[in-house]
Amino acid sequence: MVNLTVDGKNISVSEGTMLLEAIRGAGISIPTLCAHEAVSRSGACRLCVVEIKKGTRTRIVTSCLYAAEEGLIVDTKSERVLNVRRLVMELLLARCPESDVLKKLAQELGVEPQARFVADTDKGKCILCRSCVRVCEEVVGVSAIGLFARGSHKTVGTAYNEKSDVCIGCGACVYVCPTGHIEMISTGDKRKIWGRTFKMQPCDKCGKYFAPVDQLKFISKKTGVPLSELTVCTECR
Amino acid sequence: MTKASNIAATTKTIVKKHGRDKSALIAVLQDIQEAFNYLPKDALKAAGKSLGIPFSRVYEVATFYNAFSLKPRGEHIVKICMGTACHVRGAAAIQDKMERTLCIKPGETTPDNKFSLETVNCVGACALGPVVVIDTEYHGQVTMNKVDKIIGKLKEEGAQQ
């Protein structure tokens, strides 16, 4: 166990616990976008910044990636933290002015769009947190998508912006996306994502279309369970 | 045009040369670019497959580095240094002259596939500015006249072959 102080409260957490969990465990809220239980941490959104004090030195760190340390003094609401967080929020808002999630979060943080950061019009709602790319690689295991180019040209998508032949249409990327950038259109027996249309499998019992056929084939191949046993939806199983 | 089978075979040889090591991806891509003067899509696919790296990941690396080109490039690659030192010594005028001489803009290739024009940020030879690098040869203190001379010489060499 390690003992630390968060906003004047003494708490103890098990070794290796990230500051974010330790702070939230103490009942203090920290805004985040990219921290998702399904994917590894990347510290991409920068909203979870806190100020830490070790000895006489203080610095700003991303709490989602900083492991709790013995004797650490954490301040989540110092003027310095709030300033950094507001700036991050202003920049995120300038990148994705259309995102409702960001707008709501900005309102909670008391941040308004700034004239000095010219709003982007071509970035959609993507904040480039890489969560979708991570889930596709780490959880699904197909790596159909990636972040291409760099700097202001960086975009998320499939290679060459073409239909990916490894994508299984599972929609995990849509699920983890914090801002709802990725578009998935489901219409009855069809699902369209990343420019590809997937055929949906109807449930053998209730007839509801519940998963893309390609996804079931992928699961069958990976687990060895015959495809015929997978054609029942989770509710009827 | 290089045939797809040739691309795949060449890529395979290159990957083998690097011991099928995942961490050698950049070196593999550099060698592929050396072989074809750019990174063909089929080569990226083949390299990813034999290295065990997803295609999307290979494409990420290929699009990240400016040194890699996904578009076919000319026989000679003309790089004009736009670094601060070269800039103050008139790199913009050299660029202008080069554009008019070759009739292309940076990032483009001449229709005869002889020259590609690129601008780079610094080649580390600031004392020689303005610098133009053609293929692996550095030309320092480039003037309008020198541009004509260098390009003329390369065109002549090409005509003789």
Structure description:
By secondary structure, chain A is an alpha+beta fold. Chain A has helices spanning 19-25, 79-95, 100-109, 131-140, 172-176, 213-223; strands at residues 2-6, 9-13, 49-54, 57-62, 73-75, 145-148, 155-158, 184-187, 190-193, 196-202, 209-212. In chain A, the strands form 3 sheets. A 5-stranded mixed sheet of chain A has the order 2-1-5-3-4, sandwiched between helices. In chain A, strands 8-9-10-11 form a 4-stranded antiparallel sheet. Chain A has a two-stranded antiparallel ribbon with strand order 6-7. Chain A is globular and about 65 Å long. The relative contact order of chain A is 0.11. By secondary structure, chain B is α+β, with helices and mostly antiparallel strands. Chain B folds into 2 domains: 4-64; 76-160, Glutaredoxin, CATH 3.40.30.10. The longest helix of chain B has 17 residues, at 144-160. Chain A binds chain B through residues 133, 137, 142-150, 158-160, 164, 166, and chain B through 41, 44, 54-60, 63-64.
Q: What's the SSE pattern of chain A?
A: EEHEEEHHHEEHEEEEH
Class by SSE composition of chain B:
alpha+beta
Low-confidence runs of chain B: none
The CATH superfamily label of the largest domain in chain B reads Glutaredoxin
Helical proportion of chain A, percent range: 25-40%
Note the main attributes of this structure:
heterodimer; A: 237 residues; alpha+beta; 4-stranded antiparallel beta sheet; 25% helix; B: 161 residues; Glutaredoxin; 2 domains; 4-stranded mixed beta sheet; elongated
